[in-house]
Structure formats: structure tokens, C-alpha cells
Design goal:
heterotrimer; C: 414 residues; Formate dehydrogenase/DMSO reductase fold; 14 helices; 66% helix
């Protein structure tokens, strides 16, 4: 059947067209939510600042909240289960000093994953958030080969009970979205909220382009580092104390 | 082409006859659809019938790639209006047998993969509250 | 130059039926494997979030690399005007197309969403070397197809030389593209290097010719067509040169990396302490795929058995080489914090283990079967295979035909 023939029956005669007001959707707007219908803007660059001195090795608040927020179940197969964020313990073999820090997608300004993606599914939003457009991801995993941070997971099995905010299914690649859905609603990412509420407040979220924001002030005045800064991918996630 | 059209008409007539026999017809050659919440759809009903696929694809690019939220043609919103409540008071997935999206698509022999990822039931107000 | 007489294979003989039937069974088994993997999801394979490309990619990359190499015989005859190779031009082109088709089939069938192939053909990110490869592969089919046409149709003979040159250049670009899939990956110590492109070209020369030799020897033995000793010796020497070139670029690949302090740990992993990867590197790639066939081929005049055995070794060594590049390169952990000891729940800092499942290997073998099937079917319906090859008629071929050469190959010594 052609497209038109298949759609033909839809022009059924029975129901008269009712033209009323177009459907109005009222959404509760948080203080800084971007107004409905407005696109993300390059004026912003969302980022994270993580103070590892306030990140105890045993605390997993960020990870737990991420799994809950994004609906990432545990299939009991660590080699193939998705992890958007993980705690990495880093030990200096010379001194023995060990720090623990969360690593997630670093939302690079020049993301390797975006460059290598054949279809353009791997993409960077105007406000710097790096995402996988799972509608055109073919599951080739080249982005996973290219990412120096091991930030992405391939979905190895069918999923059920997905969260509305994070539709996910077998055969595509996923990763941290910086909780784009929450950021758009004027909230901070789930991990950061959990770190501030249940952890020691190691994580700060904000707009790196807004000189008045806490994150921008601290990045401008305190010492911060980025993982694999030598690769010059310009990540939006900065760390302190490593 | 003529033969194709004949086949289509033949199929529709046959399907109508069978479905009518089961009393499942709205009477105009289409399956009966469960009642949606609210009184009107996001667009004119005729427009929705014909163009919902294009509206959805447009919306998905706007939302995912541009970050436009609160769009009129949000898939999550379709689900929240078009999912019905079962006998146990729990929402029935829109992809379940006889449900809104499913019944029409199976009639039209369309298969969509959207719901292998997208939630098939509306947000649970109770669960959203505790977060 | 004497006129070459090309003849189709005779279909439906018992041997033909057995070959086609056997190949079809392998292809069917591969389809079952694909269904198993795609239906359950990739967790049923050995691949994981650590080793994202596994056995299917080893076979696919081997076949794709060999595809451009298989075209060399035709190029040597046409572009470089070496007459003795000219009768083999048609088979060379056919095999090149067949190898590419087999390799791409494996690659596509391993995608997470093979149902979205249409997306891959309609959405191009021109910054992606992968997207460029899609274009290069499609172009290869077209250009080699046209080249074959100029070889087989006298009315377009005027285009023979231009088509030959275009195909030769295209295949160089294509292999550069395949090598760059790895060469452009700066994140991983064992990739990110410009030497990948010439290395892949050298690999393609060796693998492609080895596969070509196996096909030619197999077809001539099976059809009992005369194959001259001079032709066999010539293909043998050529293979020897290509093996040496491959070994040379492997040496360059690892020596340059060793000069780079930050790559030394990764190099040590491949060369010294990488377990299976070290074994496959030295034992598989260097000894079986390089030194042994090289020694056999330069020991004296190359006969049928030496050529067959060496080509087989190069093929096996080639698979080992691609395995070490693809799986070895991913098994060495990403260096998030160079010089530090790292650990996490996500296998950071750990050498990844990869144990391929039967399904993955069967899918890869399916790619090879698709290749050979295309060659057999192609040569059955069109005149690809010369009725006789070479100057010196072979001294008394064993009368039993096909089984005899196979038996003689049990020992490399003739």
C-alpha cells in the first residue's frame, strides 16, 4: 500500500470536524523554566563543578538518584548494564592518595562522539548538552569507541517500565543527558540535587556563560581541572581536588 | 494500480464484515476507539487522523534536538489523554489490544516502534509526587 | 597477447550443488544467529559496554579490507599493464564486490537497529569518517561494477583504462577510510595514529590477494581447468611481497608508538603482557600470518600447495591481526587519569575480557559464505573465469580432481 492509500480511510465521513480552541497544555512553570515552545539557546552553557574533597568514596547518592530518575534497572549483568554516572576511585601510586569522584558524560564543547556519528544521532544542543537522538541512532557504537570518558552505554536488551522523561529501548546508545528534561523545566540534574540534599554538596550545576552564576564565579576564581584536558575537547564538567 | 485498489477495497469490505460480526465497529469502516480524556484533541480530529504521524515526528525533532518543551504534539501528552483506565483503576497501556493507538494501527496494518522506548501509560501522579 | 577464453561454471553438477548448498546452509545458520542476537539483544553476545565491537566486526573489517585488496590483481593487469595478470581481471573485480558485500552484510546485521538502515542511508553527518565510508562503499560497488563492464563488453572498451584507474584510486581511498575509522580515534592509545591508513592498505594487499588465491585455486581445482605453474609462481611471489609490506607497516605501527611514552603501557599490553592478544599478535599475526608464509614463498619456486597453504595462513593471520587491532585495542582500558590507578563499578582501569559466542562467529562465517556464494553464482551466469590460465600447461594433474589438491595440502612441503 502506498502512503496515501493507507491514509485514505482516515478521511472517514462519520465524525464532523469540530474546530474549537487548539489543545491548550498548561504546565507548571518553575522559576527558571524555559517558556514552552522556546528552543535551547547558545547563550547558555550548562555545566557541573564537582569538588572531590566533599565526595566520600562510600556515598552513592548521585548514582542512586540517576538510576531512579532515568529508570535504569539492574539486570544483574554489570558488563552490559547501562551506567550514566559512576564513582571512579583514583589512586596516585606514588603517594597513595586516593580520591573518589563521579564521572558522567562530560558534555564537551567539541565532542568526539558527535564528530564520528554517521547519522548525526549523536548531537550537541545549542546550550551545550550532548545527547543521543535515539530516533535516528542505528546502534553502531562508533561513539562509544570515540568517547575518552566511557560515558556511553549500549542497550543490550528490551526495556520495560521506562520513565516518561527517558524513553529507552534495545539497540540504541545512551548516556547522561545532564537531565535535559529537568534543566528545561528550570531544575538541576537529579545527581546534583541528590548530592546537595543527601550527599555533602560536592556538585554544583549552573550556566558557565553566566558570569554571575555560582559555577562561573568559582571556575573563574578557584583552581579546577578537567579530565583528559589534553585532548582539548573542552568538557563542561570540572573537578576540584584531583 | 486498479488491481491494487480492488484488493484494498476487497480487504476493507472483508475486514468490515468480520469486525461488524463481532460488533466492534463504529459503523463507518473503522474500529471503535476508546474514549479519550478531555473533549477535544490537540488538533482538529480530521487533522489528527490524517497527520498525527507528521506532527509527532516534527515534535520529536523540536523537543529532542532543539530543546523545545511543552509542545502541543508531545507523545507523552497523547498517552496521558488516550490511555484508558482498566477495571482495576490502573491505566492500560496504549499499545494493549483494543487500546487507542493499537486498535487503529492494527486495523491499518501499521507498526510503530515508538513504544519500545516511550512509556505507554501516563505519569503516575502518586509516584511523581514523592520524587 | 593471446585471446583469453572465458567460460561460465557449469551449474547443477553434483559438485556445484554441494558447494552452493553448503554455502547456503552457512548463510542460513548466520541468519539464525542474527535473529538470536537481535531478538534477545546484544547481551547474549560476548560484546559489552567495554568491548563494543567484537567478532562480527573482526570478520567485517577483514572482508572489507580484503575487498579492496582483491581488486589489486585487476589493477596490476590494467593500470600497471602487466599482461599475465589481465585474464584474472574479471575474477578480481567480482571477488572485490563479493567481499565488500559479505563484509557489509556482517557489519549491518550486527547493528543495534538494523531495521534503521534507511536512516543510515538518508542521514549523513559529513564530519563522520563512518558516513564517508558509507559513500565510499557505495561508490566502490558502482565503480568496480563499471570497471567489470568495460572488461566484459567490447563496445565500451574505450573506457577500460579510465575505469581501471578510477577503481584503483577509489580502492586506495576506501582502505584509507577504513583505516581511518581507527586512525581518527584519539581517545584510545592503540588507535589514534596516522599509520593506520597505510597499514590498512598493506593489510588489504595481503589479505585480498590471499583470499583471491584461495578462490582461484579452489575454482580451478574444482572445475579441473588447467592452471599454469607460471601463474601460480607469480601469484606466490606477489603474495610474498605483500606479506613483507604488511609486516613492515606493523613494525612501523608499534615502533612509533613505543617512542611515545604515554602509549608505552598500551604497547606493552599488545606486545608483552596482554594474554590472548599478545599470543595472537606474535603467534597468529606475525608468525602464522607473516613469517611462515614468507619463508615458504621465498624458499624456491612456488607450487600450488605452497600457494594454497600460504594463502590460508595469511587469511588466518589476517583475522588474528584484525582481532588484535579491534578487540585488543578496546581491551586495554581507557586512560581517564594517565599514570593513576583507577577502579569503578564500570570496569574503569581494568583490562576488558571478551569471549566471543558461537553466534557471533557464525555470523562472521556467514559473511565469508555470502562472499563465496556471490562468486560462484556470478561465475556461473557470466564469463568471469578463464578456461585456462598461464603459459605452461600443468604437468599431469591428478585425475581425481578436487579432493586431490586438498589432500596434498595436509603438508606444506611439496
Amino acid at each position: 500500500m502506498t502512503d496515501t492509500s493507507r491514509r485514505a480511510f482516515l478521511q472517514g465521513t462519520a465524525v464532523a470536524a469540530v474546530t474549537l480552541a487548539p489543545g491548550l497544555t498548561l504546565i507548571a512553570t518553575a522559576a527558571d523554566a524555559r517558556p514552552a515552545g522556546e528552543a535551547a539557546s547558545p547563550k547558555q552553557r550548562w555545566g557541573l563543578l564537582i569538588d572531590t574533597t566533599k565526595c566520600p568514596a562510600e556515598c552513592t547518592a548521585c548514582i542512586d538518584s540517576c538510576k531512579e530518575e532515568m529508570g535504569l534497572p539492574d539486570h544483574g549483568r554489570p558488563a552490559t548494564d547501562a551506567q550514566y554516572i559512576r564513582k571512579v576511585s583514583v589512586k596516585d601510586p606514588a603517594s597513595g592518595k586516593t580520591v573518589s569522584l563521579p564521572v558522567m558524560c562530560q558534555h564537551c564543547a567539541k565532542p568526539a562522539c558527535v564528530d564520528v556519528c554517521p547519522t548525526g544521532a549523536s548531537m550537541k544542543r545549542a546550550d551545550g548538552i550532548v545527547l543521543v537522538d535515539r530516533h535516528i541512532c542505528i546502534g553502531c557504537r562508533f561513539c562509544m569507541m570515540a568517547c575518552p570518558y566511557k560515558a556511553r552505554s549500549f542497550i543490550h536488551e528490551d526495556q520495560t517500565g521506562q520513565k516518561i522523561a527517558n524513553p529507552r529501548g534495545k539497540g540504541c546508545v545512551e548516556g547522561c543527558t545532564l537531565c535535559a528534561h529537568r534543566v528545561d523545566a528550570g531544575e538541576m540534574p537529579a545527581c546534583t540535587e541528590a548530592c546537595q540534599n543527601r550527599g555533602k554538596g560536592a556538585m554544583v550545576f549552573g550556566d558557565l556563560n553566566d558570569p554571575a552564576s555560582e559555577i562561573a564565579v568559582r571556575v573563574a576564581t578557584e583552581a579546577t581541572t578537567r579530565i583528559r584536558a589534553d585532548l582539548k575537547l573542552d568538557p563542561a564538567v570540572r573537578y576540584q581536588g584531583i | 494500480m486498479n488491481r491494487l485498489r480492488l484488493a484494498v477495497i476487497g480487504f476493507v469490505v472483508l475486514a468490515t464484515a468480520i469486525l461488524a460480526g463481532h460488533g466492534a465497529m463504529a459503523g463507518d469502516g473503522r474500529p471503535a476507539l476508546p474514549q479519550a480524556k478531555g473533549s477535544v484533541c490537540v488538533e482538529d480530529t480530521q487533522v489528527m487522523r490524517r497527520n498525527h504521524m507528521d506532527l509527532l515526528k516534527h515534535q520529536r525533532n523540536d523537543t529532542l534536538r532543539q530543546g523545545v518543551r511543552g509542545g502541543k504534539h508531545s507523545l507523552a501528552e497523547c498517552v496521558s489523554c488516550h490511555a484508558t483506565d482498566g477495571a482495576d483503576g490502573k491505566p492500560v497501556p496504549v499499545t494493549a489490544e483494543g487500546q487507542f493507538c493499537q486498535s487503529c494501527h492494527s486495523f491499518a496494518a501499521v507498526s510503530i516502534d515508538c513504544f519500545s522506548c516511550h512509556a505507554t501509560v501516563p505519569a503516575d501522579p502518586a509516584r511523581t509526587a514523592i520524587r | 597477447m593471446k585471446k583469453v577464453d572465458y567460460q561460465e561454471l557449469t551449474p547443477l553438477t553434483p559438485g556445484w550443488l554441494a558447494a552452493v548448498g553448503g554455502l547456503a546452509v552457512v548463510v542460513a545458520a548466520a541468519m539464525v544467529a542474527v535473529f538470536h542476537m537481535e531478538h534477545n539483544g546484544h547481551w547474549v553476545t560476548g560484546m559489552s559496554n567495554q568491548v563494543v565491537w567484537g567478532m562480527p566486526h573482526v570478520f567485517a573489517v577483514f572482508l572489507i579490507v580484503a575487498a579492496s585488496g582483491a581488486l589489486n590483481v585487476a589493477s596490476i593487469g590494467s593500470v600497471f599493464g602487466r599482461e599475465p595478470y589481465q585474464p584474472l581481471g574479471r575474477m578480481s573485480g567480482l571477488l572485490a564486490i563479493a567481499l565488500l558485500a559479505g563484509g557489509l552484510a556482517v557489519l549491518v546485521l550486527d547493528l543495534g537497529r538494523p531495521d534503521r538502515l534507511d536512516v543510515a542511508m538518508t542521514h549523513f553527518n559529513f564530519k563522520s569518517i563512518f558516513a564517508w565510508n558509507v559513500i565510499l562503499y557505495t561508490g566502490f560497488f558502482g565503480i568496480v561494477g563499471a570497471y567489470l563492464w568495460t572488461m566484459m563488453d567490447w563496445t565500451v572498451k574505450g573506457w577500460y583504462k579510465p575505469a581501471a584507474i578510477a577503481a584503483f584510486l577509489w580502492r586506495l581511498v576506501l582502505t584509507t577510510g577504513t583505516g581511518s575509522i581507527f586512525g581518527f580515534l584519539m581517545a584510545r592509545e592503540l588507535y589514534g595514529s596516522a599509520v593506520m591508513a597505510p597499514l590498512f592498505i598493506a593489510m588489504s594487499f595481503a589479505f585480498g590477494l590471499a583470499f583471491f588465491n584461495l578462490v582461484i585455486l579452489g575454482l580451478y581445482a574444482a572445475t579441473k581447468r588447467p592452471l599454469g605453474d607460471d601463474m601460480v609462481a607469480r601469484l606466490g611471489k606477489l603474495l610474498g611481497v605483500f606479506i613483507a609490506a604488511n609486516l613492515y607497516f606493523v613494525a612501523v605501527q608499534h615502533l612509533t608508538a613505543l617512542y611515545w611514552p604515554e602509549k608505552r603501557d598500551a604497547e606493552a599490553f599488545i606486545l608483552l603482557n596482554g594474554g590472548i592478544h599478545t599470543l595472537l599478535f606474535w603467534g597468529g599475526q606475525v608468525v602464522i600470518g607473516g613469517i611462515v608464509p614468507l619463508a615458504l614463498l621465498f624458499r624456491g619456486t612456488v607450487g600450488r600447495c605452497t600457494l594454497r597453504f600460504s594463502s590460508l595462513l595469511v587469511t588466518l593471520g589476517g583475522l588474528a591481526q584484525v582481532f588484535v587491532i579491534i578487540v585488543g585495542g578496546q581491551s586495554f582500558p581507557l586512560q581517564l587519569f594517565p599514570g593513576m590507578e583507577v577502579s569503578s563499578s564500570f570496569f574503569d582501569g581494568q583490562v576488558a575480557t571478551y569471549v566471543p559466542t558461537v553466534a557471533e562467529i557464525v555470523l562472521g562465517l556467514g559473511g565469508i559464505a555470502i562472499t563465496v556464494l556471490i562468486v560462484v553464482i556470478g561465475a556461473t551466469f557470466l564469463r568471469f573465469l578463464p578456461a585456462a590460465l598461464g603459459e605452461t600447461a600443468p604437468a599431469a594433474e591428478p585425475a581425481e580432481g578436487a579432493p586431490a589438491p586438498a589432500a596434498c595440502c595436509a603438508s606444506p612441503a611439496e
